[in-house]
Amino acid sequence: MADISFDDFLKVDIRVGQVLRAEPYPEARKPAIKMWIDFGPEIGEKRTSAQVTAHYSPESLVGRQVMAVVNFPPRQIGKFMSEVLVLGVSDAQGGIVLLAPDQPVPIGGRMH
Predict the structure, then answer these.
(1) Domain for residue 30, yes or no?
(2) In a domain, 111, yes or no
(3) Gap between the Cα atoms of 100 and 86, Å rounded
(4) Residue 6 domain-assigned?
(5) How do residues 62-85 score in pLDDT, each as one tens digit?
(6) Which residues are CB-neighbours of 91 under 8 A, at least 6 positions away?
(7) 86: domain CATH number?
(8) Is residue 28 predicted with pLDDT exceeding 90?
(9) Digit-coded pLDDT (tens) for 83-99
(10) What angle do CA 60, 28, 19 make, to 5 degrees?
């Protein structure tokens, strides 16, 4: 992968949000969960669809803090418009583990 400049990195707006609501997304091609995430007063509530069913149920996501890219253009995922990209890492079996602060932080905070 090519090197990028620090200015390139600063263009990616990664914020912490809190999952307000989550529900199954059975219409998705791959198993997924729809989430509504609060990013605080500056950004507000945004929604996303994520393939995180290996480790999370909709109920386990509500109230959880997550990290997400908030400045990508919206993307149509089936019949659902995804407005942010939640961040995660694949485990050894390919299941996604969400990235999140290891301590509670104010929602809307930008990653530095």
Answers:
(1) yes
(2) no
(3) 10
(4) no
(5) 999 999 999 999 999 888 999 999
(6) 54, 55, 97
(7) 2.40.50.140
(8) no
(9) 999 999 999 999 999 99
(10) 30
